[in-house]
Amino acid sequence: ERLFEAAGRIFRRRSPLPGRLWGEAMRITRESHVYSLGVSEPVATVTAPCSLTVETCDCFNGQVTEDGQPKARLNFSHVNPATGPIVVEGAEPGDVLRVHIRAIRPEKTGALMTAPGAGALPDRVKGDTRICPIADGHFTFMGVELPLNPMIGVIGVAPAGESVPCGTPGDHGGNMDTIGIREGAILRLPVFVKGAYLGLGDLHAAMGDGEVSVTGLEVFGEVDLDLSLEKGASLPCPLLHDGDEVSFLASAETVDGAIHASTGYMHDFLLAKTSLNADEALMLMSLCGHARISQIVDPLKTARFAMPVSVLAKFGVVVE
Ligand code: CA
Ligand code: ZN
Questions:
Q1: In angstroms, what is the span from residue 233 Cα to ligand 2's centroid?
Q2: What is the DSSP string of 222-271?
Q3: Ligand 2 mean position to 287 CA, how many Å?
Q4: Residues with a beta carbon under 5 angstroms from ion ligand 1
């Protein structure tokens, strides 16, 4: 308990909305997980608004257990498990599932890796693993204590068509590996199929923008969530409010493509929500907004265009 209090003191941002517990939180255990997001046998059916505690496996499903572990010992058909799917009663295509992340509790050990052919510098590494102990608001790497930044790597719903492997991000969410998906944040996911079919996993105790080695500090853990439905709210891709910024999370074959998409979605949003014209909206984005990279190492790359909450408020736009 002390660990998470310590982590909270350092990292808890202002929560966009005060956490509200909708009755007793239902616990969903990590044994019930899938390797792709889509329509499959649900582990639970819930009625929103509701509160859940979801246990998650790490992205290796526990396969990395020691420093210097050979990659050959990893079974890559068992990576990126997402706990779920959770059916949300009443969710229909065109609705939005609002996920308020009230708490993220990583366990006391994290694992990370490099792999030749993967990551941002695929030809510079031989491939290695490290185990990092986590305690009192920090983790230890190479004998140095560094700050935690707990976040959710994989969170999404069933896409419109075929199931998508949990390692791949998209408009349905999935492996977005975005540091703003953290405690206190509100993530809105577009609903593509009746029931939504939410799944999540791949917690990181720490990660930077890009996730350049190919992993964050991968941990088992659990997440407290509040779910609610916004009927007919309709979104083109996940929309994140992390307490400081509002951003559209877009994924594409290239970083350029992902930035282009997320920038376009923010522009559409400003045109819809303010009286700015197309030129003015892009000027405001250029002056105050940020094209940020989420990750550059997954099968599709993820970027976000972020506007400060304070700037949006000055133009009459409030996202709660
Ligand atoms: Ca990930
Ligand atoms: Zn991960």
A1: 30
A2: EEEEEEEEETT---SS-EEE-SSEEEEEEEESSHHHHHHHHHHHHHHHHH
A3: 33
A4: 153, 175, 177, 202
Ligand minimally distant from the alpha carbon of residue 113 = 2
Q: What whole-number distance in Å separates Cα of residue 258 and Cα of residue 207?
A: 20
Is the full-model pTM beyond 0.90?
A: yes
Average pLDDT over residues 191-195: 98
Asked if 297 and 254 touch (Cβ cutoff 8 Å), the reply is no
Distance 30 CA to ligand 2 centre (A): 16
CA distance 87 to 232: 18
**Left (φ > 0), alpha (ψ -120 to 50) or beta: where does 210 sit?**
left
Ligand nearest to the CA of 175: 1
Higher-confidence residue of 10 and 70: namely: 70
What is the rounded distance in angstroms from the CA atom of residue 206 to the CA atom of residue 150? 6
